[in-house]
Automatic annotation (TrEMBL):
Keywords: ATP-binding, Nucleotide-binding. This is Fido domain-containing protein. Residues 148-301 form the Fido domain. PROSITE patterns: FIDO. The keyword Zinc does not apply. It comes from the Eukaryota. Transmembrane segments: none annotated. Pfam families: Fic (PF02661). It comes from Orbilia oligospora.
Amino acid sequence: MSHKGARKPICIWAIFDIHPQRIEEENTTHKGFARNYRIPPWCNIHPEELFTIPQSLRENAQLLAGLEEGKLQEAFERQFANFIFSSNMIESAGPDKAETWEIIKEILSDTKPAGRVLSNNSKSRREVIQHVQAFLYLKKRISGLECLSEEDFLNCHRILTEKIPSSGGIQDYQGRYRFCEITVGSPLVLRTGEELCCSPPSKVAEYMKGWLIDYNTALTSCSDPVAVASELKIRFLVIHPFLDGNGRMSRLLFNSLITQYYPHTIVSFGESKHERLRYNQFIRESIRRRAPGIFAFFALQKATKSALERLDEITTSTQLPDSTRIKDSLRRLIKQ
């Protein structure tokens, strides 16, 4: 029953097209990169097996697209909350997992007045609230237009970082390309102690214009979403367009592209201290060696794990055709 001051729950699922974007098989801008995974020497998987994973992820998305929304909403919300928590933890930001989940449930539910969750504007809570708001904004803009304008891109960063000073205590950097030279610490410090310099500020706007063109191409035509999203993520981190918030923005943009093709799959990085170390290592090595495929292999493993978790949750109560075959295909990569 509705009452004064109540609000409708935010159906996070409503901003996703539950019918996955068709993956083009023809030649595309990113077709050459789609097979450019760097398989680690310790990995006992044949390249031909690896190349079947994107197809299995696509089949999984199509399989789940036929289910009722109610069966997917709760599982997706948990996955979404884990992504927000993990993304914040990589930057040593936000509250613990339990409080993060409570904040996100309150934002998405209709059980409390709309302003309640925003009443405590501590920095750690803002880092959750605004992370959620930035992701919802990004997906709504992309879903409505099938492209990301520079204005929307800058607005997303403004939402993410509003009233949160940079790590150096600088204010008023939100939604603006950085205006100074920058060298970045972990994960971009090499083992030798040498720091990697990012693109000069005079080139940021130019480089981001080209980056956005490629990102928008990938939103509508992409043969291997994980590989392409990984390559774009590494390029974004090298450009480092903002004074702060680049890591979180890169993960928001990565998952916005992934969910365009695999709507039921959000990829979380950094769920634990060990996973944060692994994530940073793969980022560092990809940049140092100019080989985005290093990170792409790691990201493909994480995407596969996420897809398997959703499929396992659903198939415990619902028998789905071909689910066993898809699971077997995906598990080959997880076992590595």
